Amino acid sequence: MAKVSPLEIYKYLPGLNCKECGSDSCMAFASALIERSKSYEDCPPLVKDEKYKDKLEKLIELVTPPVKEIVIGAGERTCTIGGEEVMYRHELTFFNPTALFIDVSDDLPADELAERVARISRFEIERVGQKLRLDGIAIRAKSGDPTKFGEAVVTAVENSYMPLMLCSFDPEHLEVGLEIAIERRPLIYAATNENVDAVAELALKHNSPVVAHSPGDLQDLLELVAKLRSKGVEDIVLDVGTYPLGKKFGECLENMVMLRRLAIENGEKLAGYPIMGVPLVAWLNGDEPVKAAMQECVIASAQLLRYADLLVLHSMDMFSLLPLLTLRQNIYTDPRVPIQVDAKLYEIGKPDENSPVLLTTNFALTYYTVASDIEAGKVDCYLLVVDTEGLAVEPAMAGAKLTGSLVKEAIEESGVAKKVKHRKLIIPGMAARISGEIEDLTGWEVLVGPLDSSRIPAFIEQKWKSNGKG
Amino acid sequence: MKLNLEDIIRSLVDVEDIELENVEIDAEELIIKVKQAMLPLVLPQLQPQAAVQGAKPEQKLEALPEITFEKPVKEYRGYVEEVTLGATRSEGGTRGKVIKIGGQRTLYHFEGGWINKPVVSFDVFDIPQPQFPKALREAWGEVWDSPAEWAREAVKRGADLVTIHLVSTDPKVKDTPVSEAAKVVEEVLQAVDVPLVVGGSGNPEKDPVLFEKVAEVAENERCLLASANLDLDHERIVKAAVKYNHNVLSWVSLDINDQKTLNRLLLEEGLPRDRMVQDPTTAALGYGLEYTYTMIERIKLNALKGEKELAFPVSCGVTNAWAAREAWMNVAEWGPREYRGPLWETINALAVMLAGADIMMMLHPSAVQAIKSIIDSIFGDLNGVEIKYEDWLKV
Ligand code: B12
Ligand code: SF4
Known about the structure:
The structure holds 2 protein chains of 2 kinds.
Chain A: H1 6-10, H2 26-35, H3 44-48, H4 53-63, E1 69-72, E2 79-82, E3 99-105, H5 110-122, E4 125-127, E5 130-132, E6 136-140, H6 146-159, E7 164-167, H7 171-180, E8 187-191, H8 196-205, E9 210-213, H9 218-230, E10 236-239, H10 247-264, E11 275-277, H11 289-305, E12 310-313, H12 318-331, E13 345-348, E14 357-361, H13 364-376, E15 381-386, H14 393-398, H15 404-414, H16 416-419, E16 424-427, H17 435-442, E17 445-448, H18 456-468
Parallel strand pairs in A: 3-6, 3-12, 6-7, 7-8, 8-9, 9-10, 10-11, 11-12, 14-15, 14-16, 16-17
Antiparallel strand pairs in A: 1-2, 4-5, 13-15
Helix pairs in contact in A: 5-6, 6-7, 11-12, 15-17
Chain B: H1 5-13, E1 19-20, E2 23-26, E3 31-34, E4 41-42, E5 82-85, E6 99-102, E7 119-125, H2 134-140, H3 147-156, E8 161-165, H4 178-191, E9 196-199, H5 206-217, E10 224-228, H6 234-244, E11 247-251, H7 256-268, E12 276-279, H8 289-305, E13 315-317, H9 325-328, H10 337-355, E14 359-362, H11 365-378
Parallel strand pairs in B: 7-8, 7-14, 8-9, 9-10, 10-11, 11-12, 13-14
Antiparallel strand pairs in B: 1-4, 2-3, 5-6
The complex binds cobalamin (B12) and iron/sulfur cluster.
Cobalamin sits between chains A (338, 358-361, 363, 365-366, 369-370, 390-395, 397-399, 401, 426-430, 449-450, 452-453, 456) and B (253-255, 258, 281, 283, 288, 291).
């Protein structure tokens, strides 16, 4: 859909400009469809009126992403993968971040299993204002005993709302698991050439998405997908096989690229599904745990960059998860909108009417860097955040998005004048150029702060506490 | 290998399925050409079912579409310039071997147009770096008193190239005279026989003077002078590079239009196309890496589309990864930094490499080792541990 223009979409809309969709016009609605902020179902005439049936069909075809969007799980926490439209993020954006599933094996003692499941569910770390989390639990049928597998699924269901992935090549195991997790719409791993009939039946019966597994062989994988589709299975995830570092791993990365290119650039429907990888294979290397966890992180990162929509991991060590989560956050940031914070007045620590007022921009990275430096230095102050459309201080200065009049507006809207007795504003060193302009427009006295926010505490100590206090 | 139709039919009589690996089939003549590194391909139905005795038809399934997987390979109008770093004795230099970078004719390796591997350069500085994060102090602290010693150690740890950063020439650092800095370059040239990258201090007044001197003492060694940028007298650097036989790095700050402008200027000033490498700036993982990633992707895509002003190899200062707090800061919640730091640099390198970088300038030995394993994986030069993939269920 990336290459579709609003005008092309407009052709298939009713053209009534009745605003029932909530957009101001059909044209605006067409743009919203491209942005995916609205769905075609939001246009009542189109979906209700018979006479638009043909248009509707064409429109659906036009706006359906070439990679199918698939939801795993149901209820409190679900996870959506796929739905991608472009090969390169700058062509539009990537929509659904790679889902990270952590494994548990069914031979763990029940209490350990429950504990691990709870840890996976609770896991959370904050970076630039976003909460980074894990997305699901992959239950491995290691014991070979369907009863044990069933018990593991019971434990997972009872201790977590997380989306589940049931992992066994044996349909009997899968059936036991599916019966237990019946309300959770788990991802079934996996259909193979050998079990495809039985597994397809299970998938249909339980309305669950299913993985097509054919390691290293795309011809075979596409045939397997065709078999699943011919039986009526629609929600499919592709497993090309993952290998430890080595040439088979290199091939795996290239297979992922080929699948995505087939789907997006060649319009190949059989390849139009989310792709999964299993970086957990790093643990088959026989390495000690630290090395295995590091290799797992490397494999996962490479697959994430090569279009993997779902990854199965073993390590929950923060040293290996943090780089991966950060990479995911970076790559899946919408290139059209930088991550931003609200432009308003923030209180850091316990400021009072004599506390300093500092100014920064609403680019999330800038705000959190500055705020954490201030917190680390235990400075009580007000932080006035100006809307620079999500630009950092220096780019904002370069692009004239941080100006005296914007600062004036920010001061007025924030009501900071009522919070402090003084009229002194500390601005970033990089914004020194506009200090005169700010003084002229606002009447506030400007103190030019250091270039780097890590030196704010020292600056306050020397320049504010000694003589600046209002 | 050539088979005729009869041979094939005969061979099909006794077997149920025939699977050929590494072949491409031309249906008209049935010439079977063995190709390198092809994916296994299941032979499509060559004969009507009846002719093949014993073949079992798929009974339970509905009619399936016939599927023939073909690698989605594309045609590209443009290509990336190939640049040679270093010169051997026969070419007037003293390097043990030369390194070629760039030269891609396709976007991906599987399309067949990647002739050179991405390479790694270790950073070496002309003065000790006590402000380094702990993991880097531990890796290099023992050798950083001597740039030559540092470079030797870097080569031992797998450097394809060495970058000698002459940071002390900055008037704000030590204002080391250019003649002294040039001696350091000579020492390093003697200590190692890999091609050299020479980095300035970034001072716009001094760098052009510095590069003139360095270019002269390293005449014919085909170093990479890093860097020319829009804020300094780049023409002097180009002239020196041309006169003494070196390459030039064209460095901008994450702006594709700036990159085009600077590249065009350097070419106009006389730099031959096969002597330019470009550096679009590497922002750290977690601190703008996505801008770098996307800019490199755009550079490579445009180059292959035929945009000549961007069709040069890309170099990345991956060392910037260490600017991220997450790489060096001691925060209990983030796990041990001795693992986290090298991993941070590795993932940074991995991202730019997959986006299309040709040189990664790096610092931590284990990060270098990891990225080289990945490069070798992609180029099929590393066998790796044999596993059965299905066993992941049983770990
Ligand atoms: C990423 C980036 C971009 C991104 C912007 C991302 C974003 N959301 O902001 C993009 C690609 C969009 C961009 C665009 C532009 N950029 Co730009 N960009 C950068 C880059 C690489 C990093 C900026 C960054 O994220 N810094 C990190 C944040 C946290 O820094 P910060 O906000 O400044 O905050 C620090 C300090 O200011 C200070 N601080 C912050 N708040 C406060 C408050 C107080 C009280 C105090 C005391 C201190 C303080 O502490 C913080 C931590 O150190 C820099 C180069 C570099 N390495 O610095 C160039 C750079 C800033 N860009 C530059 C330019 C020229 C531009 C453009 C005009 C054109 C271009 N080159 O692309 C446009 C302008 C934007 C526009 N709309 O027109 C120039 C600016 C030159 C100048 N000095 O005038 C730079 C320096 C690159 C260069 N050398 O040419 N850019
Ligand atoms: S509801 Fe449909 S017809 Fe009405 S304005 Fe929106 S898009 Fe147009």
